[in-house]
Amino acid sequence: MKRNNTISFLRASLCPCLIALAALSLSSCKESLEDKAEKESKEFTQKYCPTPVINNERTDSMTFDRDSKTYTYYRTWTDKADNADVINANKNKIHDLLLQAVKNNPSLKAYKEDGFSFHFIFRSERSKKTLYETTIGPKQY
Q1: In Å, what is the CA distance from 44 to each residue of 50, 60, 89, 127, 128?
Q2: Are 116 and 73 a contacting pair, CB within 8 Å?
Q3: pLDDT tens per residue, range 64-117
Q4: Sign (positive/negative) of CA torsion 109, 111, 113, 119?
Q5: Do the strands 130-136 and 117-124 form a parallel or antiparallel pair, or are they unpaired?
């Protein structure tokens, strides 16, 4: 995969993360933010996961850890994206794209103001091994 194609592919394949992140913004005003996060991560996983493969990527599940206030997104790269060499060569770019997605998503404002973290785990469809993992926390956004 050529460098420009890799960057375009990474941008396109990370867009579904934005959709999952945006889904977190809908809930009742009476719930605590932690209650809301816990409920919505369970509902999203039950209703939508695994998601269809889009741009060689799918969301397998989403969880929320109340103690650390961390959302975890479990995702799988498939086909062309399931390439450890390409992923390893582009780790900084992947992190930067995820960071920008968190920073630029207005529906995450309340979560960020409350110091939530966003943990991303990307696994290989072929080997089931983790290809990439990162956490984006309050000090970064």
Answers
A1: 10, 10, 31, 26, 22
A2: no
A3: 999 999 999 999 999 999 999 999 999 999 999 999 999 999 999 999 999 999
A4: negative
A5: antiparallel
